[in-house]
Specification:
The complex is a heterodimer of chains A (379) and B (398).
Chain A lengths: L6 H17 L2 H9 L6 H9 L18 H14 L5 H15 L2 H12 L5 E4 L15 E5 L2 E12 L6 E7 L10 E7 L5 E7 L5 E12 L4 E2 L5 H37 L1 E2 L2 E2 L4 H27 L5 H29 L10 H14 L4 H13 L1
Parallel strand pairs in A: 1-4
Antiparallel strand pairs in A: 2-3, 3-7, 4-5, 5-8, 6-7, 9-10
Chain B lengths: L6 H17 L2 H8 L6 H14 L17 H13 L7 H14 L2 H12 L5 E4 L15 E5 L2 E8 L10 E7 L10 E7 L5 E7 L5 E14 L3 E2 L5 H15 L3 H17 L1 E2 L2 E2 L4 H29 L8 H23 L8 H5 L15 H8 L9 H12 L3
Parallel strand pairs in B: 1-4
Antiparallel strand pairs in B: 2-3, 3-7, 4-5, 5-8, 6-7, 9-10
Helix pairs in contact in B: 1-4, 4-8, 5-6, 5-7, 7-10, 8-9, 8-10, 9-10, 10-12, 10-13
Classes of the chains: A alpha+beta (379), B alpha+beta (398).
């Protein structure tokens, strides 16, 4: 067993950490968040140049052929800086689906450009009635001639406004909540019949509500096997779950560092407030919660490629449960220990807290994953 | 002992219902119902109606112009008005400075300031916290120096809620730096229109503007605006803080919040069934409702003891602790209930009263902002850590 990063991974970590430290101070992030796109094209070009956009893709696809460990390294550092660029949506989730299940032509068309920083992706899987059940899909894709016609509504599609292509989960057969009968489609974002409502999120990302009204696609738009898209989507979301959990660990470390510093410098009653035992203990709980979160991300990162799908699913769910729990302890604790300053927009503390809160709501919250883990455990 | 309302109470209940129906503007009730931001006019319209009826300063004694309600009547009023989507009464005049003025002020001050509070013609704000003085309030540095028949005030206050609307501010100021920090503090009333007073917004985590910094630069304040004796301000401040802590339990507000949570959890679907039927979520809501009942009956016990002659003691601190925790838990569970739709941030809809369509269900966009904002409840009015210190020291003698 070896739980340490190898030399290449250490170099990657150093380089992402340096980028965050030097290029992503909080006031810069605030400026990027206020732009129309909500992320920086110059930063994205830099990610391409440094090879970060190609981490999980094979060398044939222009990538580095790395895996979950390296993605977790990048995401954790991004979490430290609350990086807004749509790495999770494009590289981890969208790119992950194409790399796992895409045809040679799809890989050629999407991944080469993605790695170069020219292609953005968004995955449209969530529907309002579905909550966290990925199989609950009303959006339909009906055969028409050689292709399909897609109709339905998708919600909270992260990176929707900037995506060049959508990966859309649509029902090609079966009932609304059947596991079988869901197909993934690669759809041009500018295709006729698509309307978007774009908005910022609580944590300054961008997302869209997307309506598909008889959007015609060819048979070549099918990603993977017809009717068999759920397993691909679920696996990709499990991987994205680990990635977002790694980001959360970065957020927690940043919050704990800021809070630790504040306890040592904020003076009340003539002493630094860190001298008060009740605050020390709360800080210790936050420290412990972050340690547990880091451990569970490590566990899930190392189990996510297990050939046994149950092992993978349990790992992703256990990790998300821990992140939900730890994120709340650290986020709420950091706000409380900063007092009034913690609930202001001015300090970065509230922005990390908001991101941690929203991370819990994405890809299934703590409760969803606890239930999922329990069902797998008892099966 | 009897848990039921008697005939007079029921009659009073009907009277309150009829009053709210007649006097609460529809627009205000609608904003409250949908969690929209209220403007100064909205709040003033409702409070002035209450003032005309003599119900605004309902915790004041009769001889100060209060209605002389029993604890039960107060309970009925608070619950009925919250239930019918009336805004809560802004406490700065009614519950804070008003009682200080009629308890410690002179006759001239009572005549001058109390009518404006009773009728809600004057908006007050609270000048207590300073950037360097939060939990350690007595360390405050804003100075008032006596020059002839005036004080000259210099310094700054922070977290001043709704100072952007205020006509007057009541301030704790330092008139003496010698001795213990508590000993040199005085209680001064300052006209917000005085030259040298500036208000700067503080934007909160949810994007809203409810608190401010207030700066004082050589502000000339007539000495007649001093309450009580110079250097005795800390006594008045503590008197005021005890009043602040009692209403802070916010039980009627939380009851309304739990109702809304249940409605949302009935509307949210999971595998074609309401989320509230998911045993794990239902247990959380049930647990919260049990906590709220414990708080409500604790508050009722304390209020009825008070009505029987007992004064509220430092134990009101635990009402603040539990009240704030319950408010926070409600917002946490609403955020959990709305799932993905906690994400969209719609400032136009939240703050500017725009008519844009919400994203997802109409109740969803306020969930996360409220959750973020409600973190303040365990910080303001004396942080919960400070409240626990008070109980440990004053109640338990530790």
């Amino acid at each position: 067993m070896d739980l340490s990063l190898n030399d290449d991974q250490k170099m990657l970590k150093d380089s992402v950490d340096r980028f965050v430290r030097e290029q992503y101070p909080f006031e810069t992030r605030r400026k990027i968040a206020a732009t129309n796109e909500g992320w920086s094209k110059a930063n994205w070009a830099k990610f391409a140049e440094l090879g970060w956009l190609g981490i999980p893709f094979g060398e044939d696809e222009g990538g580095l052929g790395w895996g979950m460990v390296e993605l977790s390294v990048v995401m954790e550092s991004f979490g430290q800086g609350l990086v807004l660029e749509p790495y999770l949506a494009t590289v981890v989730l969208g790119g992950g689906i194409i790399a796992r299940a895409g045809s040679a032509a799809q890989k050629q068309a999407i991944l080469l450009g993605l790695v170069e920083g020219k292609v953005q992706l968004a995955t449209a899987y969530f529907e309002q009635q579905a909550r966290y059940n990925l199989a609950d899909v009303k959006t339909s894709a009906k055969r028409e001639g050689a292709g399909f016609v897609i109709s339905g509504q998708k919600g909270v599609v992260f990176n929707g406004p900037s995506a060049d292509h959508f990966i859309v989960a649509a029902r090609t057969s079966g009932g609304q909540r059947d596991a079988k009968g869901i197909t993934l489609f690669l759809v041009d974002a500018k295709a006729k019949g698509i309307t978007r409502r774009d908005y910022p999120t609580q944590d300054a990302l961008r997302a869209s509500e997307i309506a598909f009204d008889n959007v015609a696609v060819g048979a070549v738009a099918v990603i993977g096997k017809l009717d068999d898209g759920l397993s691909v989507l679920e696996e990709a979301i499990d991987r994205a779950t680990v990635a977002i959990c790694a980001e959360a660990v970065g957020c927690m470390d940043a919050l704990n560092a800021a809070t630790h510093e504040y306890l040592k410098t904020r003076t009340q009653f003539g002493v630094p407030i860190g001298k008060f035992q009740v605050l020390q203990h709360r800080m210790v709980d936050m420290f412990t919660a972050a340690q547990e979160a880091r451990s569970m991300v490590l566990m899930a990162t190392l189990k996510i490629d297990d050939a046994d799908a149950t092992v993978r699913r349990k790992a992703a769910s256990a990790c998300k449960v821990q992140i939900g729990k730890s994120g709340r302890i650290v986020g709420q604790g950091a706000v409380q220990l900063h007092g009034g300053m913690g609930v202001t927009d001015e300090l970065s503390v509230s922005h990390y807290f908001k991101r941690l809160t929203m991370i819990d709501s994405v890809f299934g919250n703590q409760q969803h994953h606890l239930t999922r883990y329990g069902l797998l455990m008892a099966a | 002992m009897d848990l039921n309302f008697n005939e007079d109470d029921l009659k009073f209940r009907d009277e309150v219902v009829a009053f709210v129906k007649a006097e609460l503007p529809d627009g205000v009730a609608d904003k409250m119902k949908h969690g929209k931001h209220l403007g100064k006019d909205d709040i003033m319209a409702w409070q002035q109606a209450l003032g005309r009826k003599g119900w605004l300063v309902n915790s004041w004694p009769k001889k100060q112009g209060g209605p002389g309600w029993t604890a039960t009547q107060k309970y009925i009023f608070d619950n009925v008005t919250a239930e019918m989507n009336a805004p809560g009464i802004v406490p700065f005049g009614t519950k804070m400075v008003g009682p200080v003025i009629y308890t410690f002020g002179n006759d001239e001050q009572k005549q001058r300031f109390l009518p404006g509070i009773r009728e809600s013609k004057v908006w007050w704000c609270q000048g207590y916290s300073e950037p360097g003085s939060g939990s350690d309030l007595a360390s405050l540095k804003t100075r008032a120096v006596r020059e002839g028949d005036h004080y000259i005030v210099n310094g700054s206050k922070t977290w001043t809620t709704l100072a952007q609307y205020a006509d007057w501010i009541f301030c704790l100021v330092r008139t003496d730096s010698k001795g213990k920090p508590q000993e040199g503090i005085s209680f001064l009333l300052i006209d917000m229109k005085s030259p040298g007073v500036t208000v700067q917004p503080i934007i909160m985590a949810d994007g809203g503007h409810e608190v401010n910094s207030v700066f004082f630069t050589d502000v000339k304040v007539p000495a007649e605006n001093l309450i009580g004796k110079e250097g005795e301000g800390w006594t008045y401040a503590k008197f005021l803080l005890a009043n602040e802590r009692s209403g802070i339990a916010a039980v009627p507000h939380s009851k309304k919040g739990v109702q809304a949570l249940k409605r949302i959890a009935m509307s949210e679907q999971q595998d074609g069934k309401p989320l509230l039927q998911d045993p794990s979520f239902r247990d959380k809501v049930a647990d919260l409702e049990v906590q709220l009942q414990a708080l409500e009956f604790t508050e009722l016990r304390i209020l009825s003891a008070e009505a029987g002659g007992g004064a509220p003691g430092p134990e009101v601190s635990f009402l603040k602790i539990r009240g704030s925790e319950i408010q926070q838990r409600i917002t946490e569970l609403v955020t959990e209930a709305v799932g993905y739709y906690a994400n969209p941030y719609l400032p136009g809809l939240l703050w500017q009263g725009s008519n844009e369509e919400p994203v997802g269900p109409a109740y969803a966009h306020t969930a996360a902002p409220r959750y973020f904002n409600t973190r303040k409840t365990s910080i303001y009015g004396g942080s919960n850590e400070i409240q626990k210190n008070i109980i440990a020291k004053m109640v338990l003698g530790l």
